Every structure is written in structure tokens, then in C-alpha cells.
Amino acid sequence: MTLTFLVKFSRNYCCLVNPQVQPHALSLPRLSKMNDCVKLLQFLEVISVITCSSISSFINKIIFAFAKFGQRDKSLVIFDHLKRQGYGLDLVTYNIVLDILGHTGHMDEMLDVFASIKNTSFIPDIVSYNTLINGLQKIGRFDMCFLYFKEMTENGVEPDLLTYTALIEIFGRSGNVEESLKCFREMKLKGVLPSIYIYRSLIHNLTKTGKVELATELLEELNSSSTCLAGPEDFKQKRRQRNPLKSLSF
């Protein structure tokens, strides 16, 4: 994807939002020849004033568009530039960048961005924590996963399906099946439906540690017609919440 694509996207999007911006949007093609993301963002700032829309909503779409089409490095360059210049970033912006850094394995940078949220007026939400915990899980930093989970609950952020899925997997992989079972019981008490993936993870790890009787009980529970499970739509919904722009079409 090139800047030309973003120019076309921005022009069409802005005209759709408010036909009054069409004369301004027609001036965009010449920007594509400059290969200058800053110019495009300056244009979007003008458009945000005309449409009475938040500049952050346009920024988020630009950052997401680069990442979606495989140019995550450019997404991060734009984010860093805007952050230094004091542009109107919001929590969604930070969550998108956390997700990008997690997918690219840049955990030090991910932790820095997460820490920087606390220096703003924003408070990390369930999306922020889930993204961070999943990123740390991928590189085996289970100790830090537990640390941020503790911080999350102390800050009053309630764990959801994705949180419990990650924690049960982490406890299981670290050999602490008792804590996995504790999380499993807790989520059910809170009305969070477990998924088939959670059952399979628990059954596998219980069997692996010699707790065959408990594994058999869970298998019977899983196969029971009275057991309610979280389905694919529940995961899709949580993933959309984790990345609010993921459902956009470009």
C-alpha cells in the first residue's frame, strides 16, 4: 500500500462524511506525489475541523490502514510523530499501537507505550490489558502476565473471556493447574461462559499432570447437553472490542 491508497481512502471517506469537504478533498492527489504522511495528516486535521469530527478518528484509520496492509513500521512512525507533536491521540490509538507491537514482537516498545498511557489522561481498559497480556504470553513472560493481571484487577478492570482464556493457558503451560482451575471456577461464577478451547486446555494439562479423574470430570461436563459454551461469535465480539477498527473495509 502506498500513500496514494491513503489519499484515495481519505478523500472518499471525508466526502462521504460531509459533502462540504469535496472541494478540499480534490486537492489531495498532489499530496500522493510528495510521499509525505505529515502533509496528509495536516489535511485530515483541516477536514476534522470542517466536519466537526475528532482528529483522532482519522488518525486511527490511517494508522490501522498501514498496519492492515503490512506496513506496520509506517504505522509506528506516524504514531511516534503525532505523539511528539501533541496531536489528538485517544485510547483507541494506543490500543491499536499495542496490538501492532504485539504482533511484531516488539515487547520492550509495547511496554513503553503501555506505560506512556498512564502519563496521559487515559486509563488502560480491558482491551489494553488483554493486548498486553497476550503479547507477553507469546514470548513466555508469564511472570509479567500475572503482574499486569494483578494490576488490572486492582484498578477495577474486570477480566473477560479473552483474559481468562489467556490466564488458564498461561497457568497450564507453567504447570500450575490448580490456578487454572481457580480461574475456570471464577469465570463461571462471574457469568463468563467458558469456551471449548478452555475446556481442552484444562483437560490436556490435568491429564499431563496426572490428575486424570478431574480431567475426566471436565470432559463429561464438556460433553453434557446442559453445558453452555462461548462460541465463535463471542470471540469475534471480544476481538472487535480489542481492535475497534478491525471490522472496517478498505
TrEMBL record:
GO terms for cellular component: cytoplasm. GO terms for biological process: mRNA processing. Pfam families: PPR, PPR_2, PPR_3. Keywords: Repeat. One of its GO terms (molecular function) is mRNA binding. Transmembrane segments: none annotated. The keyword Cell inner membrane does not apply. PPR repeats lie at residues 90-124, 125-159, 160-194. It comes from the Eukaryota. Belongs to the PPR family. P subfamily. This is Pentacotripeptide-repeat region of PRORP domain-containing protein. The lineage of its organism: Eukaryota, Viridiplantae, Streptophyta, Embryophyta, Tracheophyta.
